[in-house]
Write a structure and sequence with these properties.
The protein has a 5-stranded mixed β-barrel with strand order 1-3-4-6-5. With 138 residues, the protein is an alpha+beta fold. A hairpin with a 5-residue loop joins β2 and β3 (51-59). It is built from 2 helices and 6 strands; from the N terminus they run αββββαββ. The longest helix has 11 residues, at 2-12. The protein has a domain at 28-60 and 75-132: Nucleic acid-binding proteins (OB fold (Dihydrolipoamide Acetyltransferase, E2P)).
Length: 138
């Protein structure tokens, strides 16, 4: 009986956290997508030198079958980049390019013009990499 009680105490004890070590939850909101740029990037320069670039990225729709379905609708993701990443985004990307994006998922509520509450979800890009097609190389 006494051993069972000590085991429970050791499981429920709160661990001491070292400030230098990252917590296990620090990197949970991370996503990497590879797809085709569906729209030319837009650009906004906001107050105090803040820069924002955005576009839409299409990725293949997951297929419920092992064989891929022809004609399946692609998934469309809203990509947003800020600061230096936004400038890099604009200089490299155009419609039809294959792009790998790493970043985090961000959702925010808003109300449409009819007053209906909706949620807007976007990918905040932290890294961008333009993919080159093997077929275009001689």
């Amino acid at each position: 009986m006494k051993n069972k009680k000590s085991n429970i105490q050791s499981i429920t004890a709160t661990p001491v956290r070292d400030k230098e070590k990252p917590t296990p939850f620090k990197f949970r909101n991370l996503i990497t997508l590879c797809g085709v740029v569906a729209s030319d990037p837009g650009f906004l320069e906001l107050g105090k030198g803040r820069k924002k670039a955005f576009c839409m990225l299409e990725t293949p729709s997951p297929s419920p079958n092992k064989e891929s379905e022809r004609g399946a609708q692609p998934l469309v993701h809203s990509i947003t980049a800020w600061g230096k990443t936004a400038v890099e985004f604009l200089s490299q990307i155009k419609t039809g390019d294959t792009l790998q994006v790493s970043g985090r998922i961000n959702s925010r509520p808003y109300k449409d013009k009819n007053g209906i509450s909706k949620i807007y979800t976007e990918i905040i890009a932290t890294q961008l990499q333009k993919q080159t097609s093997l077929s275009s190389n001689p």
